Amino acid sequence: METSIGISSPTSPRVSARELAAMDFRFRSGRRSLDLAATLGGRHRRPIERLGGPGDLARWFGEAGLLAGPPPVDDDRLILARELREAIYRCARSVIGGAAPAPGDVAVLNAHAAVPPLVPVLDAATRAITWTAPDLVAAALSEVARDAVDLLGGPQAERIRECAGDGCSLLFVDVSGAGRRRWCAMGGCGNLEKVRRHRRRSGPERIAGERPGESIERPEGEAFR
Ligand SMILES: [Zn+2]
């Protein structure tokens, strides 16, 4: 039985804690640009759109550490951000597959990267740094695009991986010494894989529970896409 939390109303169905957790932003790729790509999860099976509205993008900028406060985001900016996100994703997938990224996608990256980035401002009294720009959203997207350019054109490009977790499409940079990291998170997809292996060893009666339509208790890793 999944636990449900009380955000239901007569017009909206109850949302399970697991469904809510699936909407959390992922920051485990090691790179800002791939973290943006992860705002569309479960790409190979059931896509999870985590940038459903302009407010989600504003929140992502905050959680990504790009901006202290949520900037004004409108629908047009959201569309631009999603376009950049998909260009980053496709370029990274091409590089993983040993192919050249599509020129159109690279052009999207370069266009965003050409916008002046965020400017640091030092406070004289507190020495706190804040980041500013005439156009905060465009500048924040420029930061993301510049990260993508740096990643795809630099030595870490060879270390871009896709999580091996079942149903997980998260891309990450493998900075392990051996270069054999397989999962976006050991406590998530890695753990889920361990549970699956254990079930396979445990006999057919357990495996039967994994047939479509049958109820089976899923480990927390299910929400790690
Ligand atoms: Zn994963």
TrEMBL record:
It comes from the Bacteria. It holds the Pfam family zf-CGNR. Residues 159-201 form the Zinc finger CGNR domain. Residues 198-225 are annotated as: Disordered. The lineage of its organism: Bacteria, Bacillati, Actinomycetota, Actinomycetes, Streptosporangiales. This is CGNR zinc finger domain-containing protein. It comes from Sphaerisporangium corydalis. Residues 202-225 have a biased composition (Basic and acidic residues).
